[in-house]
């Protein structure tokens, strides 16, 4: 039927409870192949035909779920920082659902009971599952240490302030235990006699320079927060790498946070890669060889 209608040959997709976005994929494919579905059902089994109202529901719920599809794709990647995006994306999702719900409550022309029920359920589940996401210390620290977001990703300024104070304490303790090797060995200035014209100036500089690693780490964090935000499309890891000598103490802690992933998707993909690697002709591979093949497969674009 798709060939007769000169349409792209597409198969329908089925909703699978254990697969993310499968509901969106199913409804999106239904909308894309609407003409072919209507024509096929009319010829084969007319009693199964969807009504115009049911088609309207499908086409109306599709843009509501599109946001969740985009967010899922965004946080499921393993080629970039994902944990730092969780708080900003949750804020975006909640705002998206609230605006959709407001339209359903105020605009009579777009009010559809079934769509309103879906939006209300999504709003309830989002608040239940992600309403306290800013209280999660790992998410909060990752967002603060991402130069694209910092405090802009937070909705609750009180939780941001609490996370920031906790981060200062951790960086202070971490920096006091860590010896940072400077990129270039500093040259010790010669001591000036009391009668030197530079004596007062040198003493003032010494007083203003942090004399302990804890204070130095806090100073680095405050200086970092005062820098302008990085463009969202740019790579924060490259930003930090370029400034690793400017913020040596902070950079050491950043490495502990930006290596965390937001979801278990990358781990689950390894099982799929293991299945592809261990086929019938490779059953005799040793465990060591399988681990090496998986490592190569997961770290290459092949």
From TrEMBL:
Its main location: nucleus. Pfam families: Dimer_Tnp_hAT. The keyword Transferase does not apply. It is found in: Nucleus. GO terms for molecular function: protein dimerization activity; zinc ion binding. Residues 220-297 form the HAT C-terminal dimerisation domain. Keywords: Metal-binding, Nucleus, Zinc, Zinc-finger. This is HAT C-terminal dimerisation domain-containing protein.
């Amino acid at each position: 039927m798709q060939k007769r209608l000169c349409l792209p040959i597409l198969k329908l997709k089925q909703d699978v409870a254990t697969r993310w976005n499968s509901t969106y994929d199913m409804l999106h494919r239904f909308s894309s192949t609407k003409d072919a579905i209507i024509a096929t059902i009319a010829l084969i089994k007319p009693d199964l035909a969807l009504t115009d109202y049911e088609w309207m529901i499908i086409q109306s719920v599709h843009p509501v779920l599109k946001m969740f599809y985009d967010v899922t794709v965004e946080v499921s990647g393993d080629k970039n920082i994902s944990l730092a995006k969780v708080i900003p994306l949750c804020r975006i999702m909640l705002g998206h659902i609230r605006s959709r719900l407001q339209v359903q409550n105020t605009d009579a022309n777009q009010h559809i009971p079934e769509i309103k029920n879906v939006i209300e359920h999504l709003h309830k589940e989002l608040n239940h599952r992600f309403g306290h996401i800013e209280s999660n210390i790992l998410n909060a620290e990752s967002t603060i240490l991402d130069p694209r977001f910092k405090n802009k990703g937070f909705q609750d300024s009180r939780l941001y302030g609490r996370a920031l104070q906790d981060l200062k304490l951790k960086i202070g303790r971490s920096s006091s235990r860590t010896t940072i090797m400077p990129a270039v060995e500093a040259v010790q200035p010669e001591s000036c006699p009391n009668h030197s014209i530079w004596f007062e100036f040198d003493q003032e500089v010494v007083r203003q320079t942090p004399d302990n690693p804890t204070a130095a780490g806090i100073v680095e964090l405050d200086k970092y927060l005062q820098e302008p935000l990085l463009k969202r499309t740019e790579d924060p890891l490259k930003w930090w790498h370029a400034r690793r000598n400017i913020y040596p103490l902070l950079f050491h802690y950043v490495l502990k946070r930006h290596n965390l992933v937001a979801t278990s998707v990358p781990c689950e993909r390894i099982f799929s890669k293991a299945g592809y690697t261990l086929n019938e002709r490779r059953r005799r591979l040793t465990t060591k060889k399988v681990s090496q093949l998986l490592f190569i497969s997961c770290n290459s674009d092949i």
